[in-house]
Every structure is written in structure tokens, then in C-alpha cells.
Amino acid sequence: MKKLAILITILSAVLGCSSKRLTEAEVRTVMGEMETSVQRHDANRLIANFTPNAMIMVSMPGTGGGLSRMSVAEYKNMLEGLWKVQLQSTYEVSKREVALSANGRSATARDVAKEVVLLPGERMESLSKQKAEIALVDGVPRIISLTAEVESLVATPTSRN
To answer: By its UniProt entry, which PROSITE patterns does this protein fall under (predicted)?
Structure first.
């Protein structure tokens, strides 16, 4: 059902904006907004870059891991919950690559995200490969799907003083 919603969003974008083409600069701007929003813990600013029916998938390593699929609202709630308990965090993105579709209506952005989070009694560090699918929706670039594959997640106890 969600795949159908994504296809409808892409089709609407293509039919609604027949002359406008997505540029690499626009894709990089959307991805930069996403990065800045995470760094500032601004969930509203973050989700403003997504279509309302975007699909978010997070794959976690290990026996307790697996694939989680979330709606935009669920993703926002998850981030807000995590950000409430964090003492400190860093979020850095590298190796960003952008590939525009041949028709200029969509693009794929890939990058690597490193996040370090300090929680009460624990320091967590993760490294993830991220892939965002971006399409023109009413002439505006929006994320229609986001996949994060967490490659490593290391939790280290911290001393409580």
C-alpha cells in the first residue's frame, strides 16, 4: 500500500510539473536542510522536507536489529523522543552523492552519517548509509523515501559523577 502511495506521489509530480526539472543544487539544499534540522533537533523543520506519505526505513544491525518502517509522523515522534533524553549529540554527513533521473523529475541522494549521542550513563556512536529519493511535488523538491542502513552501532557505558 505504501509503495502505491509513493508511485502516486511520483506520478503526480511528473504530471503536475511537466516543464520544471530538478537540479542537483536543489537536491543538495534539501539534504542540507535535513542535516541542519537533525543537528538543531528541529523535527518540524526536518519533516517539512518530506511528502506527507513518505516512507522511512531504518535497518539496524545485530540480533535486536532488523528493518523498521515508519511514517513521517512516526519518524518525527521517534526523533523527538530521542532528542528529549539526549545530553549531547553530534551529527555529521560525508560522501554525499546525487544522481538525477533522466527525466529530471526525481533524484537519489546517498551519503554516510556519523552520529554520536551522549545519554545518561551511555555514549552511543553509529555509522549509517543513507539514501533519499527526492521528487518534484507541485514544483518543490521533497523527500518521498528515506532509507538508513545502520552499519555499526556501539554503546559504551560512561561514568556517572
So the answer is: PROKAR_LIPOPROTEIN (PS51257)
Query: b vs e for 31-50, b when ≥16 Cβ sit within 10 Å of the residue's Cβ?
Result: bebbbebbeebebeebbebb
pLDDT mean values, one per 10 residues, the chain (161 residues): 58 58 96 95 96 94 82 94 90 96 95 94 94 95 96 86 53
pTM of structure: 0.81
Which CATH code of 3.40.50.1100, 3.10.450.50, 3.90.76.10, 3.80.10.10 fits the domain covering 2-157? 3.10.450.50
